[in-house]
Amino acid sequence: MKIGLVLSGGGARGISHLGVVKALMEHGITPHIISGTSSGAVFGALLAYGYTPDEILDIVTKVSIVRQLRPAIGSGGLLRINRLEDTIRTYIPEDSFESLKIPLVVNATDVCAGELVYYREGELIRPVLASCCLPGLFAPYEYQGRQLVDGGVLNNLPVEVIEEEADFIIGVHCNPFPVKDTVCSTREVLFRSLLLAVHNRNKERFVRCHLLIEPPLLRDYQVFDMRNSKAMFDVGYDYTRQLLQESPVLALNHASSDTSE
To answer: Which of 9-23, 105-119, 186-200 has the lowest mean pLDDT?
Structure first.
């Protein structure tokens, strides 16, 4: 049985993906193909290259992402993400999809054409960074004649692109919608309305996953909260361990490791 793993975007909350994957691997569930967007693309690339979840968490805690961002006034965003190319190249020196041990697909949004673009071969690092360019915060990433922004704008859980290549799809979503009794400010109404639009599109993809993992405690963390990396890792790990103990998906334990089928 071939397992497909889909990793959503979610900023710093994406660190929880690492805890989820660690728990899956401890139960003998390893992916045969990975699809990811935004932070899910970054962590998907490192996992696909062969780093363990704990090794990637160590990388995250050592690398100061903020210090490598530069102002991009007048360029469609506040910051430029380009300088992270060299940082990622330190850990994936070959800089190619072909160098990965597990096939990977990442998506980005062409902000001019208004369409999704998927990448799965050739140069790796620049498409991964393009997938992370949150509109408004980061300037669009120019690559192959396109101006690219965050893939999550149009598809924050890219299930469809690997459906034909996997028998069982595990979707990992790190942006549980925060339910509240009331909202007060105009800013909060606008922000939650945007979240609802994205969440509504995601719901259509949730049902396409054979197993959806969405740790509810991630509501307690902000999307830029890098200080709580270990805590978010543990949230993903603990939730997934409990879920697998209670779920019939445990039948996948040995089948998922059989790459001959």
So the answer is: 186-200
Task: Tell which residue, 209, 201, 207, has the closest CA to residue 20.
Answer: 209
Distance between CA 172 and CA 232 in Å, rounded?
14
Considering 8, 35, 39, 150, which one is annotated as catalytic?
Answer: 150
| Two tokens, residue 5 | 């793993």
Q: Quote the tokens at residue 190.
A: 């606008």
Kindly tell me the number of DSSP H helices and DSSP E strands found in the chain.
8, 11
Does residue 156 contact residue 201 with C-beta atoms inside 8 Å?
yes
Sign of CA dihedral 221, 129, 86, 55: positive
Q: Chain-wide mean pLDDT for the chain?
A: 86
Token pair for 121: 């071969």
pTM above 0.85, yes or no: yes
The conformation of residue 178, written as its DSSP 8-state character, comes to -
Q: Which residue has the tokens 């993906």?
A: 17
Contact 4, 32 (CB under 8 A): yes
Q: Which residue is catalytic, options 8, 16, 35, 38?
A: 38
Helices assigned H by DSSP within 140-228 = 186-206
Among this protein's residues, is 150 annotated catalytic?
yes
Span 96-124, pLDDT tens digits: 999 999 999 999 999 999 999 999 999 99
State yes or no: is 38 an active-site residue.
yes
Per-residue tokens: 217? 């405690």
At 125, which amino acid appears? I
Here the tokens at position 70 are 């530069």
